[in-house]
Design brief:
18% strand; alpha+beta; four-stranded mixed sheet; 51% helix; 181 residues
Length: 181
């Protein structure tokens, strides 16, 4: 069994493992965003009324996109263009409910990262399992940090000033403002 201690990732021997890690990083990005948005969706199912729309990735005409409906309230769209972008749209007027829904995404990313980290660092796995687990851990930790810190994220075509992170939206709600752009 190969474990973290037997592979020197920063030597010539480790180059194929790092290359595989970059491949998994690219492959798992949309699933990390989907996991983060799942945290928002689970809270939105409890604290909002009406339809809930989840979009992962940007929807371009030329890209691969999957649309599906789950039940009467949940509509999903998953695309592989810009897989780090994701949005959950819901209708809710109460500040506390909106804050809880916004909190759900970072919380879910943190929990997934914590559980994956515990699993990864408390066991010895073969490289075939260790590498995707390490990438999954890092992606979810980055997703948590990116969403929890109160900052504006990378500008997009639809939001040229940058999208406010979940943390910034929560901070604005708690200070009496609106959580939108």
């Amino acid at each position: 069994m190969i474990s973290l201690a037997t592979i020197d990732y920063f030597s010539q021997e480790g180059i194929p493992y790092l290359a595989l890690g970059f491949f998994y990083f690219w492959l798992l990005q949309p699933f990390t965003t989907l996991a983060h948005e799942t945290g928002h969706v689970l809270c939105a199912l409890f604290f909002s009324r009406g339809r809930i729309l989840v979009r992962v990735g940007e929807s371009k005409e030329s890209g691969f996109k999957v649309n599906f409906k789950m039940g009467r309230r949940l509509f999903c769209s998953i695309g592989f263009n810009n897989p780090l972008s994701g949005v959950t749209v819901f209708r809710q007027q109460k500040v506390i409910n909106r804050s809880l829904i916004l909190f759900g995404g970072p919380f879910f990313s943190f929990i997934i990262s914590g559980l994956t980290g515990f699993l990864l660092f408390s066991n010895s796995f073969s490289a075939a399992i260790e590498i995707p687990l390490a990438v999954w851990f890092c992606l979810n930790l980055l997703s948590f940090l990116r969403s929890a810190l109160p900052v504006r994220l990378k500008p997009t075509i639809s939001c040229p000033d940058g999208v406010p992170s979940d943390g910034l939206q929560i901070l604005r709600l708690l200070c009496g403002g609106k959580s939108g752009n």
